[in-house]
Amino acid sequence: MEIIILAAGIGSRLGHPYPKSLTLLKTGKSIMQAQIDNLCRAFPDDPVKVVVGFKKEMIMEAFPDLTYIYNNEFDSTNTSKSLLRALKKVRRSGALWLNGDVVFDARVLEKIRPLIKGERSFVCVNRSHVGEEEVKYTVDEKGFILNLSKKVKNGLGEAVGINYIGKKDIGLLIERLKECKPNDYFERGIELAVGKDGLKVIPADISEFNCIEVDFKQDLDKANELL
After folding, report:
1. What is residue 1's three-state secondary structure?
2. How many Å from the N-terminal Cα to the C-terminal Cα in the chain?
3. What whole-number distance in Å separates Cα of residue 135 and Cα of residue 157?
4. DSSP 3-state assignment of 44?
5. Cα–Cα nearest to 2, from 74, 89, 132
6. Angle at 147 between CA 145 and CA 151, to 5 degrees
7. Tell me: the pLDDT tens digits for 76-135?
8. Which of 86, 48, 90 lies closest to 65 in space, CA to CA?
9. How far apart are CA 75 and CA 218, in angstroms?
């Protein structure tokens, strides 16, 4: 499969003058280094591609051996367009992607391995916490994702920013990401594919493991506590 890290954004809410993915954790590693270490241990044969934008040279210098995709509209688009650029580069495989600000327990990857092996498209979710500002979800009568956005009411949990699209579903998601507005999150593309194409997406529950997206300083503090 292809592994994609979305790291093009400015990350203004955290307030650092450099890409958020380069934020140092108390371990001494950056968020992205921790991600790459976990990914390479779990999937040593799968290539990692990073979508960059804001101060891309800093990321490229820190990780010179990775493959990069440049979102030159990073200052006017959101993750839907970064993911679109990346998925267009995927050939004959499924794709695991994650936001470049996610700090997660390596055991998350072992939990989702069977779904990846089975080519089952999924969104990792945390059912133990539903933040007002987070992307939330509901399911249909068969347990597949029905709604997926920050606007969802009575959400069953929140999406944590780690996702997989099976190779048979990539074409559908690409077409729906094309329909997304520039400022849409990639979850909007998934939601459109679910509604228009009947895309079956599993909510993969990883609530038992530590996993947090670092948007604000308090998120970073919490991530360091979890580490």
Report:
1. coil
2. 28
3. 9
4. coil
5. 89
6. 145
7. 999 999 999 999 999 789 999 999 999 999 999 999 999 999 999 999 999 997 877 899
8. 48
9. 24
